[in-house]
Recover the amino acids of this structure.
């Protein structure tokens, strides 16, 4: 992949036109809650080598925030700001309980695990020259060895938001001199990545440089509600994103130049994106613009041509004029940088949870411009989309199929690893252990992923459930639960308990999808009716009553759950 003029002509031309046509024909009439044809259950299985996995992140599960020489991260700082906040000080205590986590995965038949390494647990200040925390290195070696001993392949994220606090204080973190030659943050991230490849790369074959740079950039350095809470919504996010993209490219090339030949692994990045569906046909351009500003901001440079999407550059150039600025708030890459960024992904990591309805809002007044107003769109949700506990999470399964199709067309048919997808419950008493809404979510979303794979020929290679465990959900603390396993955060031993969804997921993995004629698929056919909350009794031949659901429930979930309990609890 290289930077050529024809890329951008293709981008604004044929592709967009085809895509708009598809959108206007297929999607617009059916943004609603249930559509018989669109939402029909697909029977079949995923490709044989399909990867089923579950994910966590260091700050969300490890705890042990200050053991041995671990340095503080920006999330330690945020969580310790006042006494009223939940913190990651102990979290799930996976620093000590990782063997129990691994037994949960084994019990589910999972052969892959996505976790992250905490940068300040390896280099307390973020810089190797200031010292290495050997206990941290020992911990990750022990975790990786235990995984492999249990036949589970590690998939490792290098940066899941826990930047060493010292790097924020010394250099401004990812705001560090983003357009000069004196930037150090790229090299520091490169040194950290090299150290991880050196120490763990003999056993780790899947590396994810950054998790969701969109969140770090916009929420961390633009809005400033996430760590490190830098509030500069006109420009902060563009500066941080620029540095993150360059840091990613640096880490990719270090692997390519120094490790690939010997270690033979893969390096990619995980990007998050909500699907944007136009509210009316007139909003089709706006919906594309929404996705380009969201996903394209990072994916276009890395997976297409080394540069930001054309629509982002032209929109931001127009804004600069309107605002009386001499330069765009969106920084520019040099020609050398473009070359070094383009093509730096062996796979495309995707985190996806939800969909928004997009309306055209061109052209927003320019007082206090920010990333949200820069897109010139409005966002909302169809009234009949079901909701999860997280305020932003609406359940729209068909959105993931559309997004996967977009990635295939826009970025040259890459191999896509879904590295997160899942649903939150409230923390409530009694605890939600029969988490039928989560089962429905996994059922419907994985079926849409299978449609993308088997009907649309998208190269989806992996599906990863977020999350293995209930954990520290960032600003929401322990009030939102995404886990396949329940964790009692008042219990000092942090015992884990399987929820019904873990048993469902285990059977999904064992069946590798929804094979025709299997008992599992019959169970799903019946659940389909319940999950789509529709009164259309003919859906997928459904003829039974509620009792049929409950008897199937006991067969498929309750009995295996009892067995699972006796093994784990
Ligand atoms: C992702 N939002 O974050 C992260 O990768 C996980 O660490 C996190 O626990 C999971 O999704 C569930 O939230 C997000 O506000 C955090 O839109 C916030 C948002 C989206 C994703």
């Amino acid at each position: 992949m290289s930077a050529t003029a024809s890329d951008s002509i293709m981008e604004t031309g044929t592709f967009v036109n085809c895509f708009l046509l598809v959108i206007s024909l297929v999607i617009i009439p059916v943004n609603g809650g249930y559509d018989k044809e669109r939402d029909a259950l697909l029977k079949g299985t995923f490709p044989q080598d399909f990867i089923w996995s579950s994910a966590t992140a260091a700050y969300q599960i490890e705890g042990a925030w200050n053991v041995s020489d671990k340095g503080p991260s920006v999330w330690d700082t945020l969580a310790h700001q006042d006494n009223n906040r939940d913190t990651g000080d102990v979290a799930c205590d996976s620093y000590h309980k990782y063997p129990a986590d691994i037994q949960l995965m084994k019990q589910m038949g999972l052969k892959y695990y996505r976790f992250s390494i905490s940068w300040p647990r390896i280099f307390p200040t973020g810089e190797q020259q200031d010292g290495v925390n050997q206990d941290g290195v020992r911990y990750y070696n022990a975790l990786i060895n235990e995984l492999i001993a249990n036949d589970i392949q590690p998939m490792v994220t290098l940066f899941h938001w826990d930047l060493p606090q010292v790097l924020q204080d010394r250099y401004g973190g990812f705001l560090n001199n983003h357009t000069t030659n004196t930037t150090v943050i790229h090299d520091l991230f490169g040194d950290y990545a090299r150290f991880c490849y050196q120490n763990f790369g003999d056993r780790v074959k899947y590396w994810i440089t950054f998790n969701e740079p969109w969140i770090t950039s916009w929420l961390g350095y633009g809005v400033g509600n996430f760590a490190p809470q830098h509030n500069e919504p006109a420009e902060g996010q563009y500066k941080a994103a620029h540095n993150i993209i360059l840091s990613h490219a640096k880490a990719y090339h270090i692997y390519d130049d120094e490790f690939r030949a010997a270690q033979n692994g893969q390096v990619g990045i995980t990007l998050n994106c909500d699907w944007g569906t136009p509210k009316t046909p007139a909003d089709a351009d706006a919906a594309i613009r929404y996705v380009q500003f969201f996903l394209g901001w990072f994916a276009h440079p890395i997976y297409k041509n080394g540069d930001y999407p054309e629509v982002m550059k032209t929109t931001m150039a127009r804004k600069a004029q309107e605002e009386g600025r001499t330069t765009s708030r969106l920084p520019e890459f040099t020609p050398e940088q473009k070359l070094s960024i383009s093509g730096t992904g062996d796979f495309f990591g995707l985190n996806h949870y939800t969909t928004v309805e997009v309306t055209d809002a061109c052209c927003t007044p320019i007082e206090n411009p920010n990333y949200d107003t820069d897109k010139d769109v409005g966002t909302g949700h169809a009234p009949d989309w079901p909701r999860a506990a997280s305020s932003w999470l609406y359940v729209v399964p068909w959105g993931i199929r559309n997004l996967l199709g977009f990635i295939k067309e826009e970025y040259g048919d890459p191999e896509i690893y879904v590295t997160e997808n899942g649903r939150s419950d409230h923390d409530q008493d009694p605890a939600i252990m029969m988490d039928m809404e989560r089962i429905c979510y996994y059922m419907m979303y994985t079926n849409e992923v299978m449609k993308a794979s088997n009907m649309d020929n998208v190269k989806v290679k992996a599906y990863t459930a977020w999350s293995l465990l209930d954990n520290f959900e960032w600003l929401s603390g322990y009030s939102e639960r995404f886990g396949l396993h329940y964790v009692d955060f008042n219990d000092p031993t942090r015992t884990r308990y399987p929820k019904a969804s873990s048993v469902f997921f285990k059977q999904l993995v064992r069946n590798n999808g929804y094979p025709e004629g299997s008992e599992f698929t019959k169970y799903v056919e019946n659940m389909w009716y319940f999950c789509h909350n529709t009164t259309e009794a003919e859906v997928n031949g459904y003829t039974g009553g509620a009792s049929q659901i409950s008897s199937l429930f006991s067969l498929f979930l309750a009995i295996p759950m009892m067995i699972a309990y006796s093994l784990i609890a």
User: Anything to note?
Assistant: Residues 57, 60, 211-212, 215, 272, 351, 392, 420, 466, 473-474, 482 surround 4-nitrophenyl beta-D-glucopyranoside (CB under 6 Å). The first helix runs from residue 5 to 27. Residues 43 and 517 are 9 Å apart (CA to CA). The radius of gyration is 23 Å.
